[in-house]
Amino acid sequence: MRIAVTGCLGQVVSALRERAAKTGHEVIALGRPMLDLLAPATVLPALKTAMPDVVVSAAAYTAVDQAEIDAPLAHATNTAGAEIVAWAARHLGVPLIHLSTDYVFDGSLDRPYMETDQPSPMGTYGASKLAGEHAVLAVHGANAAILRTAWIYSPFGRNFVKTMLMLAKDHDEISIVSDQLGNPTSALDIADGIITVALNLINNKDPLLRGVFHIAALGDASWADLALAVFRTSAMLGASSVRVNRITSTDRPALASRPANSRLNCELISNRHGVILPNWHDSLETVVRRLSAVTV
């Protein structure tokens, strides 16, 4: 299977390259200047050259706070960019997997969000991603799967887990928000899920395999819980322990509000695609071990 993915440096793209290589699939990562979501004329030629069996739309504007200042850029990338990738996949006659986010919800529910729950973004980033979902479904909904995920970490790029390990080198204690809940999810596990969904879309025309799905790790945590787990694992590997002070969101104000509840119900993708990601504790240990081996 040939997978063309938009973007070259993101966590999911990097994980997809690694996982695909281990399972005999080929990933063609397309980034600027060859494929630039802000230069729509580049998208179809780049994807056409890749000759993919499936397209993964992963490139996005993900700076949540900065999006409140750069709203036009966020929408140009996450909405118009998603739409042009969908048009290209439709033109090529191949399935599309589009990555979205838990930030399409406002976090007001007291349970994990289901695909049937009404989205209500709190900020520009979530609004731009939701508009991108709508654009994808309008253009190529008959052969597209939208995968909403959350709290991504990995051995690649910048992410919360890597930041905690870096801070632990110079701090004895760290204050972390404890009133936001989500599913910490390894990009490596997301990549495995994407490969399964891609094969299903290629080999089966069933419309139930298309549409919106949630894909996240089993189990939930607060950011403080996640930090504690990072430090426990790191200490087990010989690093110094770090004290975590639990604080509230109001103690650390940001330009963009975050959902208090980012938990995602993933039963639908399990039932229809057979995708069940591991518990976040298990995947976290794998990633921390890899990062510790690099940073020690």
Question: What name does the CATH topology of the domain at 2-158 and 186-218 and 263-278 carry?
Answer: Rossmann fold
Detail the poorly predicted runs: none
Shape: globular
Q: Helical residue percent? A: 40-55%
- As a whole number of angstroms, the C-alpha radius of gyration is 19 Å
H/I helix tally: 9
- The CATH class of the domain at 2-158 and 186-218 and 263-278: Alpha Beta
Q: What's the CATH H-level superfamily name of the domain at 2-158 and 186-218 and 263-278?
A: NAD(P)-binding Rossmann-like Domain
Mean pLDDT: 96
Describe what you observe in this structure.
This protein is α/β, with parallel strands linked by helices. The protein has a domain at 2-158 and 186-218 and 263-278: Rossmann fold. The protein has nine helices and twelve strands. It has a six-stranded parallel β-sheet with strand order 2-1-3-4-5-10, sandwiched between helices. It has a two-stranded parallel ribbon with strand order 6-9. It has a two-stranded parallel sheet with strand order 7-12. Strand 3 (54-57), helix 3 and strand 4 (96-101) form a beta-alpha-beta unit. Helix 3 packs parallel to helix 4 (124-140) and helix 7 crosses helix 9 (280-295). The protein starts with a strand and ends with a helix.
